[in-house]
Amino acid sequence: MIGIVVPAHDEEETLGACIASLQIAAAHPALQSEPVRIVIVLDACRDGSATIARQAGVERLEVAFTNVGRARHHGACWSIDQGARWLAFTDADTVVEADWLARQIASAADVVCGSVHLLDWATLSTDLRRRYLSHRQSVTAGRHIHGANLGVSVAAYLAVGGFSPLTTHEDVVLVEALRQRGFTIDWLQEMRVKTSSRRAGRAPGGLGTLLQSLE
Questions:
Q1: What share of the chain has pLDDT > 70, as a percent?
Q2: Of 28, 96, 193, 214, which cross-links 131 as Cys (Cβ 3.0–4.6 Å)?
């Protein structure tokens, strides 16, 4: 079984599209009908996110962490308890491509890191787009780490204790721990997701904060 974990904090505007894209990815023929369970970790939600998840027919866990690292880990532990062998992570303001899971499962690596593109790229100013691309190019060999586009085997995840209870960069800390333990990492730039370019991000120090700093 494959587990998909999505932390959500007041994401009613974007959650429906996220779930719909995940359900398409879960039905990809390359998965050969392997069961996929999507769980939305509703972290201190005060809006209609829970209703959207319920109507979409996906699993829901309600917590009050206000901490993305704890929320991701909580969802991961639930998925492992359900029998998951592989964990895929994304964010509630993100849509994945139809072959998102298929690419992860096709990899022989313990960890798969994909790329993130901005949903409303055309609406950004020329200067902001230039600064954003310059920032991304400054990362060695395009090895970006995004919680919005990450997959890991359950064996590797458990070996390092999973996500740390951090409000930001929990994804970077996890991948670094896996690297230090010698687990193999596949940097799949062609495994793309599209995420919101909103400035009022849910995680301090996340993509929204970066875009705000570049403006």
A1: 80
A2: 214
